[in-house]
């Protein structure tokens, strides 16, 4: 309580209160003054509460303060049953109620000022449901909620801007610098325009330059779109590869497993996911939110010095030592037989720890497996990018080696054939060259003979006619062959269709039977699933009811245990007080003077008498001092005047001695001159 009062007095003596209190003056405040002080502190947090409480009724004052404390989320110390006592103490101005409220308010004034400001806009007005049936009221309520959400977003942006450290001075400097740059650019543009106007066809050149700039911008946008499409294509290919891998895994699982094993795996996965969603992830989210809240609070606070850090570390060490002492006391005073649920608590805690450990191991294994799958996909994509294919399994690699060997043998044989064909090609090429030379010589002779006979060009015309007739005959042969090939292909296709129909007929019959079995199994699976869901819902309901009952019993047990310990402590203190009272009565009633002197009453009576005697002596001394004060002051003044008079006489005597010495020296000098 003393530390609390000291903190309150220190805060009240600072800005903006400046009360100039000390511990004695603050502790001696009347209830009405305490209520006015509390109202002033609340008025500093919310200006609407800067009210003189003498101008309003006590009920209105209590109601106003309770409303604001509720908005500020103040929780009075003690159990919930003491709320009525808290209200009564607030109305009467009790120190036991107002001192904790002042201590809580003064320690977090800035935070509470922000909360009170936000409460004016974010405390939602509760509209009855029957009024919301009206369309106008519903529209206004919806608009009110939308405005509230917009205010929340704007306030968050405002806080982020405040935290980011941007100031109006910096923004103004940036704006002024940008305006200067704008003026410089405008001047440069004007100079360039004047310089360009002297050039011929400058308008056409400007238009061409504008089109060039537009085309470059379009080229950049197209390049960016191309890059985005490439990245989208890459991501799509990766998703396709992942989907193919998952499809292969699912096909492998379906081929190697039974419906019972699949159902079991699905149940295990559902149980694990439900545990993550209902227990692990909410707990982690709560811890993350708590850490984020503390970090935001730490960021909002001013920078800490090394002295602050040292003080915090020492405080942490003290609190840790106190916690260890309390834990040791609890372990010493704890009796296992006092609680019927100690064994179940221990088992439940062990099971929950094991469950959390296994869930973390499973989560780590899944994350590791997903990371390995991502690495495999990256390696596959890199291999495909380098012109390779996917990584082969052991069986696929053996098949690949066997195919490679057969292809190697075929390659060697084909290479030998190519060498033979190349040699034959060289021979035929030489033969063709010789025949061409002979043909040219024969053509020259034939042209010379035709010129002699006067029928030049006859052989060329005859060759052209023969070539055309040969081409026509070849085309006719090709058409005939094409028709024959088409008729043969149609026959083959009809035969293949008939063969496929005959081969697929038993498969289709078997597929129909399998489809019917699949429908029956699906219906049975749905029925079993419904039974399982209903059974699980019932068990979950029973489990939740039992958990609530156990929780209530545990809370009741803890409450009873705390009540027992509180009553036990009160009993011990009362016994000590009763023993002291008995001893006091025994000493007071005793006939022996030595025993009576030991009594507290006698001791306090003796002390009171001594203090009264001392006070009487001091009052007499004060009376004597008052009576002799005037003559003593007069005598002191006379002595001071006498001292000044003697000082003046001493100075005059010293001056007279100095003048007599100077006259004697002058007389002696005159006598010496007369002698000379």
From TrEMBL:
Keywords: Acetylation, Cell projection, Cilium, Cilium biogenesis/degradation, Coiled coil, Cytoplasm, Cytoskeleton, Differentiation, Phosphoprotein, Spermatogenesis. Residues 137-253, 309-382, 483-591 form a coiled coil. It comes from the Eukaryota. It is found in: Cytoplasm, Cytoskeleton, Cilium basal body. GO terms for cellular component: ciliary basal body; intraciliary transport particle B. InterPro entries: IFT81 (IPR029600), IFT81_CH (IPR041146), IFT81_N_sf (IPR043016). This is Intraflagellar transport protein 81 homolog. The gene is Ift81.
